[in-house]
Amino acid sequence: MNNPYLPIPMIIKNITDETTVKDIKTFELAFLNKEDEKNFSYLPGQFAEISILGSGEAPIGIASSPTEKEILKFTVKWYEKGVVTNALHNLFVGDKIGIRGPFGNSFESKNIKNKSVVVIGGGFAFTTLRSLTTYMIHSHNRNKFENITIIYGARSPDDLIYKKELKEWAERDDIKLYVTVDKGDKDWKGREGFVPTVVEEVAPSAQEASAIICGPPIMIKFTIPKLVELGFSPENILNSLEMRMKCGIGKCGRCNIGNKYVCKDGPIFSLAELNDLPKEY
Amino acid sequence: MKSKVLAKKDLLKFINKLIKEYDVFAPVKKEEGIVFSKIDKTDDMCLSYSNTKNSVKEFLLPQSEKLFRFAKKENTNEITDLKEKKRRSLLFGVRPCDGKAIAMLDKVFLENIPDAYYKRRRKNTLIIGMACDTPLQTCFCTSVEGGPFSIEGLDALFVELKENYFIIPVTKQCEKLFVHLDNASQEDIKEAEKLKKNAEKRLKPVFEIKDIKEKLDGAFDNPIWEEIHEKCIKCGICTYLCPACHCFDIQDETVGEEGCRVRNWDSCMFPKFTMHASSHNPRATQKERWRQRIMHKFNYLRENTGMYGCVGCGRCVEYCPVNLDIRKVIRDILESK
Fold it and tell me: In the β-sheet with B78-81, what is the strand arrangement from edge to edge?
């Protein structure tokens, strides 16, 4: 019988420190069994339960894109109280761990194809947005989307994750990339300012466009009114919710908000859907 | 299959036969009260009970259940899936309220992505109910779309008549248990019907269930939640004894390099239930947790499964250490503006 609670065995192939304080790491995982790799089919926006035997499981958004073959990436912030994230941050390349998933819906399930897409991210919440961006700009997919605008902000230049990708994306002429920091340092030559201000300034067209926004609550709170002003409808503003989860399949009850379970009905919700849900996240 | 009768004097013989083939669970008198537990002989069984202290959900969703074992030998991370139990289980004497709760749990655990462990146990378990002819003061099954003679979730229902047990076979799985028994007579059917009416009459409606969903839809910001939770001491007994509550946690337990992944009952009444690793807690106080318990049972589950997450067994009313009464809570909500 297919048992959704059994983790898929994986091996850590690479670990990248995203910041100099080393509290955010990206783990590149490879499947130990070819069969598992073949069966693991996912889309940007989905997540997996990362399983460390002896420590437990934690739900983490998939940061790689299905167009990146053979590996899965997860970017994880260290939290003092996070049992699994602590254990994960103590692992090394070559260590074996498990994953369960993919779980949840995807950005694509919310009608973003054949339209323009504005990706708005803040801090380390850029993980599934990295998945989405990498996916959309891949040669097989680029023509399925109209204009692609990426707006990404962090507190400081060091807090920006995926520095290598940001560099690559900046060189492309088929997407627009705006990177901003609250306060730059002496080497920073880019923008300074908050994400909502940048959104207002670059004013992406709301015509036939979806805005996808992931970041700290304060950024989301001030960005959404700007998007509404620009004419984005609540159906076209998408958000990814985080909740504490265990099972990932809508049984264990803890990610329940209203009549939805974030693990199976989300994590991606449109603003229209969120407006119908209790503000309990 | 037609209704059957079993002479009362033959019950123990009948159960003894079942014990040979099944792990039989039934009400047993213990120090702490009458509890549903495994019986090895019919002497253990106690059928003069109104309801058992524990519900039967623990035989399908154990309070603590090993999901798999693991060993971290030289970093191999070996996992051993636990084997299915060979002997089948049979629950005898389940009250219809608990049976109805199983029907609700089936919707949660067997639909969409089936829960492998629940499914295994459920397929391996026969559930025989015992109609409830003397409901307690705390019982309110008829107020939540149930009834003292409800067959929902059961494989068969026994009704205690004067001389006989009247047996209503519900599912095909239990037919072979009763093939050798006599068919019920018209008198038996009449007697059972009368008992049913009497029992239902004793259960006065405690609130109007048909109004509750609509009321709760607009009650998220109702000031009443500020008061409801005030007495609550967060002990969680209401959710542990509830036959329909099913929220769980998954934890790893290790000794040295070996361990197992375990699923344990959890409770929405506990502060850490929704606490993120970042310390953010979407349901930060007992007010939000009580609201969630009521909303989940009477609004969200109803919307998602067509059934309420409350079957009116009354255990939470009877055992709450600070006398919080869910019937009064629902009435207060219905009466609030």
Answer: B78-81, B64-71, B258-265, B248-255
